[in-house]
Design a protein that fits this description.
Layout lengths: L5 H28 L5 H15 L3 H8 L3 H8 L10 H19 L4 H6 L1
């Protein structure tokens, strides 16, 4: 198994931080749209956040207090949260990604807290 040298690790970490920042920005845009966000757009944001979080569907379901089947239906754009609750779900996902960002790059912790 190949190992990363310091330069490769730094490049990987910078890419990871950039990706997490992008996901946070996209979730913030979705939060602003709130109830006007359509099911397909919600599913895209949800899938991006789920991928960025790198956690199991069971853990994600527990974190946002929905059932495991609901996670699957949201990811497949079969359903979406009620329009009134959708911003809350997106905010919970954004908060989880911000926490992941703080672990990925501790020096960006203040930036993640501010957004």
């Amino acid at each position: 198994m190949a190992t990363l040298d310091d330069a490769d690790f730094k490049m990987w970490r910078e890419h990871r931080v950039s990706h997490l920042d992008h996901v946070i920005e996209e979730l913030a845009s979705g939060i602003k749209l709130g109830p006007r966000l359509d099911r397909a757009s919600f599913a895209k944001l949800f899938q991006d956040a789920r991928q960025a979080l790198e956690i199991s569907d069971d853990d994600l379901a527990a974190s946002i207090r929905v059932s495991r089947p609901t996670i699957g239906r949201w990811a497949r754009a079969e359903t979406a949260p009620h329009p009134v609750g959708m911003p809350g779900v997106l905010k919970a996902l954004a908060d989880m990604v911000k926490k992941k960002l703080r672990y990925a790059a501790p020096e960006t912790a203040e930036l993640a807290k501010a957004s």
